[in-house]
Amino acid sequence: MSPFLALSGISKRYGGVRALENVDFACAPGSIHAVLGENGAGKSTLIKIVSGVVQPDTGAMTLDGAPVRFPTPAAANRAGVVCIFQELSLMPDLTVADNISISDPPRRLGLIDARAQRRRAEALLARLGCEDVNPQIRVRDLPLSRRQMVEIAKALGKDPRLLILDEATSALTAADVEQVYRMLARLKEEGTAILYISHRMHEIEALADTLSVFRNGRHVETFAKGQRTNRQIVEAMIGRDIAAQYPPKPERPRPPPSLEVTDLGWAGRLKDLTFSVGPGEILGLGGLDGQGQKEVLLALFGVLKGVTGTVSVEGRPHRPGSPADARRAALALIPEDRKTEGLMLPMSVGDNLVAASFDRIAAGPFIDADRQRRAIDEAIRRLQIKVGDPGDPVSTLSGGNQQKVVIAKWLMTQPRLILLNDPTRGIDVGTKQEIYRLLRELADAGAAILFYSTDYDELIGCCDRVAVMYDGRIVRELQGDAITERAIVASALNIEQEADPAHG
Amino acid sequence: MADAITADTAPARASARPAGSGDLRLRLRQNAGLLGAVALFVLFYGLYNLYHPRGFSTQVLIQNANEILTLSLLAMAQTVPVLLGGLDLSVGAVMTLVNCLASHLVAGSPAQIALGIAACLGAGAAFGFVNGCIVVYGRIQPIIATLASGAIAMGLALFLRPKPGGKIDADLSWAMTNALSDFAETYGLFEDGKAAWFQPVAWIPVPLLVLSAFALLVWVPFRRTLTGRTIYAIGSAEGAAYMSGLPIARAKLAAFTLAGFFAGAGGLFLAIQTSTGNADIPQASTYTLNSIAAVVIGGTSLLGGTGGAIASVVGALVLRAISFNFRIFDVPPLLQPLVEGLVLLAAVSLGALRALRAKNRLELFR
Asked: Domain named ABC transporter: which ranges (chain A) (predicted)?
């Protein structure tokens, strides 16, 4: 079949950095084409060029065989190229209906027809099985997973001939992911070309017909599904042989708890949670997205008001009234959204690194420049953050390196209890492995770790124990060999497992 | 496969639609700030009329309607740049400039008067358009661009009217500042305002009709255009608006042009009410600052994206109703700024009460 969109000889540089080098690439109608690569491999730049956000320095693009240029995202949309970006493109203060029809709302006599717009939103949301989203609600008032579905509905409304999904499922619940899969299958049958970018191998296995691997700005290879093993694919992505993805778990008896939580409750969303973690342990929080896992972390970190139950940290009662209190009790939280809660994006890498530990680098009311520089240098070395100059704005770093800055910032406070809220979301394989190793090192050094992840593989590979949550409760705690995908999924759906070796 | 299992057995997930809430409740919740402002206005204005010797009478209403008109128009003017996430510090100065211009142009034959009015409104819009060009093409922050252009407008106003003076058509002044019956009588309409069918509406003060006309014939349709929607989108998330292919430059130009237009209208009616042009610098600054206060009281976010011009009119009404009460309760003039400040602070604090309700402190920072 002749390609719908073809790129030839595309190169792009940002300053001295080579983002894409002489790339040839094509995607066919009626197929799902996965693009794989570490962060910084050039996937984002490829998508930005295809969707008109940036212009290539050299090279040509053809659409249906005819040469095209997309000077703006709107021009790409008009040609039928629609991208669902990893960074949400929704206006939080506008309603769902407004957002879905934002660029070309139905009009009557030149004025926006609110009723037609609402019906259009309802129809598009229904195609995604999101009838529960009220089109009149403001996007700001929706949870992240629903916002992502609105984003997808918005893209569908543009009648794409080439639909690009850039990590579009990373914030979704498992049920929504299934809806998106069905929608993609339907579009594929209708002859839409689909480019799919994801860091989740099992999604790619389930969906893609064709896979392309990018590394260091080059298109390494393209092959049909099933021609390579996962191991070969990962090796092609990182360009070297990989050691075991997860560090080995130490075999030893369960340590005495340093964090003890009894009957934790909050606002009807957390119900009677009882659990404990000891130094050297990694306790995973599992389950479907939105069952209260994030709230557990926020409650321990002093963000929530009206928390009931008792919490003690190293024997002392722990009732933080703010994150500042929690920090003084040697807690650290790697937050959910690094762009808004983890980093001050316009500030420098260095300023971000020391932002939680001013007390360690201050001399009286002033910041000691020498101590600050030493602390920054050490943090950059310890986490191997790839940074040109610590004075550069943190926004110039890649996603994985930004996340390392967030983690390094909190490690600098020397926390004894580390809370992580889905720290590997949207991060490349190489950085993920570094983070897994780091977590194990921190645990071995005596930290207690509470680790929420939406990726079951991660929970299985990293955690000593996994507490599976459902509807604000811990429904099951898995340990050792009992931590399997099957057990986690069954508990996550609150299904009683029949043959249950742990309790049998 | 994990995903296959979840497809049909998915448990009730966190619903985006709270149980049992209709669209009406949703709308009320989304406009809580405006509802608070309406309640404040009813409170202050009701108090004023209750204690006024001739409270709830047409004369009092006509006088008040004149007192609120200019500030209401300026509040509408200020709203549009605020929705973008900016501030327009030139609205008071543009008002003053058009006020001085009107004192030269709005007199003579009916045709001359009509042309003069059109020229005044056009001058305000043109000045706003220039503001927009500075912001869009000069890439200068609105607050500093309009601080400078406001000073320029003041300079032009002083050039037009070095000393207070000038002249406005007397019939027009009378007709525009009284009840609809007086308007009809002045221009010999509807049997000099005596027609039987006309009586039910004859009492309505003309300034209120003018204000309603600007709100319903200019703002309401504008808000439903793609350009108007884009202004909200920019204030909410400019990057997302760009990525959605929205006309950003056009919307910003339109926002400042509309601000200039409303501010010019305010200046025109100030001239019609006072029958003079006066390049009064303190007055211009006071109007600018009060316009910002009115926008905030009406519930429009200074960060942009939510609110609207009609809400700001309610904010202006609240501000004015506060000062009306000074006349009734004999607050000594020297104490008035102090009291006004305290009442204003209390009124704005009502909006901050949501902080007490939030169970998740992180939401306060979003």
From this structure: 5-241, 254-496
Say if A244 falls within a structural domain: no
- Pairs of residues, one from chain A and one from chain B, whose beta carbons lie less than 8 Å apart: 142
| Tokens at A209, concatenated | 């017909």
The residue of chain A nearest to residue B237, with distances taken between CA atoms, is A91
**What is the rounded CA–CA span in Å between residue B327 and residue B331?**
7
Q: Do B11 and A493 touch (CB under 8 A)?
A: yes
Chain B residue with minimum CA distance to A112: B224
- Max distance between CA atoms of chain B, in angstroms, equals 84
State whether residue A301 sits within 8 Å of chain B by CB: no
- Where residue B15 falls among pLDDT bands split at 50, 70, 90? very low
Report helix, strand and coil shares of chain B as percent, to nearest 5.
75, 0, 25
Give whole-number Cα distances, A9 to A22, A50, A73, A223, in Å: 4, 13, 21, 20
Query: Tokens for A92?
Result: 């939080």
Assess whether A296 and A401 both reside in one domain: no
The predicted-structure confidence for B227-281, as pLDDT tens digits, reads as follows 999 999 999 888 888 888 788 999 999 999 999 999 999 999 999 999 999 999 9
Boundary (domain end) residue, out of A388, A413, A438? A413
Residues A213 and A233 in one domain: yes
Residue of A468, A477, A461 lying closest to A245 (CA atoms)? A461
Please tell me the total count of domains within chain A.
3
- Same domain for A433 and A401? no
Q: How many Cα atoms within 13 Å fall on the side-chain side of residue A10?
A: 27
Percent of chain B with pLDDT over 90: 63
- A247 inside domain: no
Within-domain flag for A215: yes
Max Cα distance, chain A (Å): 74
Structural domain boundaries enclosing A77:
5-238
- 8 A C-beta contact, residue B198 and residue B190: yes
From chain A, pick out residues whose CB is under 8 angstroms from the CB of B242: 73
Phi, psi of A289 (to 5 degrees): -65, 140
Strand order in the sheet with A66-68: A17-27, A5-14, A58-63, A66-68
Tell whether A286 and A345 lie within a shared domain: no
* Residue B228 structure tokens: 């108007």
- Give per-residue burial for B246-270: e unless 16+ CB within 10 Å, then b: bebeebbbbbbbbbbbbbbbbbbbb
- Amino acid letter, residue B32: A
- Domain end: A187, A208, A238, which one? A238
Same domain? A96 vs A187: yes
Q: Cα-Cα-Cα-Cα dihedral of B353, B359, B362, B366, to 10°?
A: -50
A420 and A409: one domain? no
Look at A136 and B27 and tell me if their CB atoms are within 8 Å: yes
Query: A103 and B366 in contact by Cβ < 8 A?
Result: no
Considering the domain architecture, whether residues A384 and A491 belong to the same structural domain is answered as no
Tell me which residue of A504, A290, A262, A104 sits closest to B10, measured CA to CA: A290
Q: B79: closest CA among B319, B324, B347, B296?
A: B296
Instruction: Confirm whether A246 is domain-assigned.
Output: no
Q: Which residues of chain A have pLDDT under 50?
A: 497-504
CB A214 within 8 A of CB A37: yes
A100 token code pair:
């879905």
pLDDT digit string, tens, across residues A242-291: 556 788 888 888 899 999 999 999 988 899 999 999 999 999 998 877 78
Cβ count within 10 A of residue A187: 18
DSSP A205-237: HHH-SEEEEEETTEEEEEEETTSS-HHHHHHHH
Q: What is the CATH number of the domain that holds A437?
A: 3.40.50.300
Q: DSSP label at A247? A: P
pLDDT of residue A502: 43
Return the structure tokens found at B21. 């809430």
Nearest Cβ partner for B360 among A103, A303, A493: A303
